[in-house]
Design goal:
Layout (H helix, E strand, L loop, with lengths): L3 E6 L4 H17 L4 E4 L3 H13 L8 E3 L9 E4 L10 E4 L13 E6 L3 H16 L4 E6 L1
Parallel strand pairs: 1-6, 1-7, 2-4, 2-5, 3-4, 5-6
Helix pairs in contact: 1-2
């Protein structure tokens, strides 16, 4: 079973949240993993796409928005229930557990700072806990 890391954000800024996701994707990719970021909407995927382009002035994170059948980018951003094959780490930004979560070697679940999103994060935590996954919580200030 994949270990699951919950990252609890203590900022309500969407910009700060997107920046944290970029930092996490950067770290995971530099560890040699292929990263899939699951969003709830095309708008969020596009915003994250733009943020990844401008995230670091001195470097580039190779990425694209999935599904783009011609791409082989090691960081992919999705917003549908389609499975993106060949990825190692799932960064979940959606409000639910993606139906395709099981094949990933690791899962990072980002919980944003609002009462409704925290409650949805708790629901995802309970989902994984009831299935006996190894869970870790990280408070991000």
């Amino acid at each position: 079973m994949s270990p699951i890391d919950f990252y609890i954000l203590h900022t309500s800024s969407r910009q700060a949240s997107d920046r944290f996701v970029c930092q996490l994707a950067d770290k995971v990719w530099h560890q040699g993993y292929r990263v899939y970021i699951q969003c709830d909407s095309f708008a969020r995927a596009e915003r994250l796409n733009v943020t990844l382009w401008t995230f670091k002035e001195e470097s580039f994170l190779p990425h694209d928005v999935y599904p783009d059948a011609s791409s082989v980018a090691p960081i992919r951003i999705g917003y549908t229930e389609q499975v993106c094959e060949g990825m190692d780490v799932l960064i979940n930004l959606s409000e639910t557990v993606p139906a395709f979560f099981e094949p990933f070697k690791r899962i990072a679940d980002v919980v944003e700072n609002s009462p409704s999103l925290r409650e949805k994060g708790r629901n995802r935590y309970r989902f994984y806990k009831n299935r006996h996954y190894e869970l870790r919580v990280h408070e991000i200030k």
